[in-house]
Amino acid sequence: MPRDGGSYLKSLKDGREIILMGKRVGDVTTDPAFRNSIATFASMYDYQCRPENVERMTFVSPTSGERVNRCWQLPTDYHEMVERREAIVEWAEIHYGFMGRSPDHVSSTLTGMYQGLNVFEEYDKDRAAAFRDYFHYVRDNDLFLTYVIINPPEDRGRQLGERETNNVRVVDEDAEGITVQGCKMLGTSSVMADEILVSSLQPLQPGDEDYALTFCVPMNHKGLKVLSRKSYEGAAYSVFDNPLASRFDENDAVIHFDQSKIPWDRVFVYRDIDMARNQFHGAPGHIQQNYQAQMRLEVKMRFLVGLAHKITEAIGTAQMPPVRDILGHLAAQAGSVKAFVRAMEAEGEQRGEYFVPNRHLVYTAQVLTQAMYPQVINTLRELSGGNLIMLPSSIEDFADETIQDWSLQAQLSPTMSSEEKVKFFKLAWDAVGSEFASRHTQYEMFYAGAQFTTRGNSYRTYDWEGSKAMVERILDSYDLTEEVNRRKAAAEAAE
After folding, report:
1. What is the enclosing helix (H) or strand (E) of 23?
2. Among 88, 104, 133, 452, which one is least packed by beta carbons within 10 Å?
3. What is d(CA 26, CA 357) in angstroms, rounded to the nearest whole number?
């Protein structure tokens, strides 16, 4: 039987050190700041265990013989890649695409790194063996991983070795392992995960060797502290008032290591700036994690476009030609994300025994969707007008019949009751205008890095030579001297 929600919930009762609002959190599965979001993740594991879903959502691990989620699958051909994507998309529909750091995200990173295991072997046989064994362990146990691969912002104008920093670094080593100290971000879903991958996606320079590390540890590892941001779930008054924030707040956190000892069998890159990059870009780790992100975004875009159309129906503008024009553009934007994902697969390539998505199309999608998402949110704002903010203060307004009557008098709709209109626009506000929504706009704009980073990846992976060859071919098809001589000959013949 695959991992179920009960097993997942039990795994979180491990004494992990979570700090929120100046206090240590006890049981994260029952704390009002996290319990509903954790319950959503638990429902994803329960979903894969339903008899009617097991075949689609899971596959048999080649090392354990037990079924695990398809996010751990290593496709060997196009068919298997599509099979895996269909399962990931189905999982994302449970949270409507709002949980970017769901269990299938970092597992996709690890599958990509594993598909480039030769890169690790060329670097260091011992580190390669450690990573291989770890991958088998987390896959066979269907664990939920998150990661921290970004340094806290400091003086970005100077390299790490030249500035005061509190970034995670090695401070000691011995026969048993290494000792690390410092902070990393963004620990999205770290409160809810089983283990965490600590690495550096940002470019490192000579002199930064102490920061060139990759390791994985359980969330209750000694010396590991999770410093949570404000919980949007905890601030949600009710599911009715905040239907998204109350259930799908995956949370973000700073991860702090205080003299933490990491055993060698959990260390995969050690003091090597080239390998710190190659584990993601030499191996298809970076490609796989962002391919998964576009699958999730495909689901989220479908939700937002559906929300947009229902907004226009609720306020009676759906049939207006200018509004239909806007809706048509939104539909095209949603369709483009789906098309990108399918193109990544159709243009995929064989890497040894594995089939991987087209890397340039992954980066193309990133560049365009980073700019697209805030445009989509702004469009929903324009379609909604004042309806997003003309809402009763909370569900408590419905507890008093007189206040309820006053409130509903201002909530008329041609297609739904006043109560339904309030319920719907509470949802729309949580997707578009709430603190939860603002975080999502920021997330979609920057989870893959700043735009100059994603554009750089696009530049780096594009077939420039192929494009320039077309230009050269047409240039070679005609000649200035020949043209001049032909015109002279024609003129002389005319005389």
Report:
1. strand 23-25
2. 452
3. 42
Give the phi and the psi of residue 173 in degrees, each rounded to 5. Answer: -150, 155
Q: Where are the domains of the chain?
A: 5-281, 285-462
Say how far apart CA 134 and CA 110 lie, in whole Å: 10
H-state helical runs in 177-263: 232-235, 245-248
Count of all residues that appear for the chain in the document: 495
Q: Which two tokens stand for residue 411?
A: 């909530």
**Which pLDDT band holds residue 159 (cuts at 50, 70, 90)?**
low
The partner residues of 180 in beta bridges, in order of sequence, read: 170, 260
Sign, CA torsion 444/447/453/455:
negative
Half-sphere exposure of residue 336: CA atoms within 13 angstroms, side-chain side = 16
> Confidence class of residue 164 from pLDDT cuts 50, 70 and 90?
low
Amino acid sitting at position 190: S
**Token pair 């994902």 in the structure block, residue:** 341
Query: How is 370-402 classified by DSSP, letter by letter?
Result: HHHHHHHHHHHHHHHGGGGTS--SSGGGGSSHH
DSSP letter, residue 441? H
- Per-residue CA distances from 362 to 188, 284, 366, 452, 466 (Å): 22, 11, 6, 15, 19
- 29-44 residue pLDDT tens: 999 999 999 999 999 9
Q: Is the pLDDT confidence value at 284 over 90?
A: yes
pLDDT at residue 160 greater than cutoff 60: no
Q: What local confidence, expressed as pLDDT, does residue 400 receive?
A: 86
Residue 22 confidence (pLDDT) above 70: yes
5-281 with 285-462: one CATH topology?
no
Q: Tell whether the model's pLDDT for residue 336 goes beyond 70.
A: yes
Cα(428)–Cα(304) distance, integer angstroms:
9
3-state secondary structure of 410: coil
Retrieve residue 446's tokens.
């920057």
User: Is the bond into 204 cis (omega within 30 degrees of 0)?
Assistant: no
Question: 376 near 440, Cβ under 8 Å?
Answer: no
Q: What is the mean pLDDT of residues 268-294?
A: 97
Pick the closest to residue 370 from 435, 446, 293 (CA basis): 446
State the CATH class of domain 285-462.
mainly alpha
Do residues 364 and 462 make contact, with C-beta atoms less than 8 angstroms apart?
no
Tell if the pTM clears 0.90, that is, is over it: yes
Per the listing, tokens 């354990």 go with 64
DSSP 167: B
